[in-house]
Amino acid sequence: VEDLLSPELCVCRTDDGRLVEGLREAMLETVIPRGAGDRVMVVLGEHAGKVGRILEREPGRSRALVQLQRDAGGQVVPLGYDLICHYVGGLEED
């Protein structure tokens, strides 16, 4: 997701670099990183907007154990796959 046009519409960049405008949430699929330690952003719920690292994945329960970054006190929370997505943004300054 590159930009939000409204609460319902966004602009996304494809793997080949093309921009696609006017996409609705129902048209998107959440990408969950495969490795432990990969970064995710919380996109829904109480911790929305926070970035963290996957400590453990629970595919059978469709959730991951995530340690939120320092601004959240390093809190560890179980989050459903629908609440998180792969985060490829920059690192926070320490």
UniProtKB/TrEMBL annotation:
Gene3D superfamilies: 2.30.30.30
Keywords, alphabetical: mRNA processing, mRNA splicing, Nucleus
Pfam families recorded: GPKOW_C (PF25088)
InterPro entries: KOW (IPR005824), Rib_uL2_dom2 (IPR014722), Ribosomal_uL24_CS (IPR005825), Spp2-like (IPR045166), Translation_prot_SH3-like_sf (IPR008991)
BP GO annotations: mRNA splicing, via spliceosome; translation
KOW domain: residues covered: 33-60
GO cellular component term, pick one: spliceosomal complex
Matching SUPFAM superfamilies: Translation proteins SH3-like domain (SSF50104)
Any coiled-coil regions, as ranges: none
Subcellular location: Nucleus
GO molecular function, one term: structural constituent of ribosome
Entry function: RNA-binding protein involved in pre-mRNA splicing.
Cited PANTHER family: G PATCH AND KOW-CONTAINING (PTHR15818), G-PATCH DOMAIN AND KOW MOTIFS-CONTAINING PROTEIN (PTHR15818:SF2)
Family to which the UniProt record says this protein belongs: Belongs to the MOS2 family.
Name this polypeptide is given: G-patch domain and KOW motifs-containing protein
Annotated organism of origin: Ramphastos sulfuratus
Gene from which the chain derives: Gpkow_0
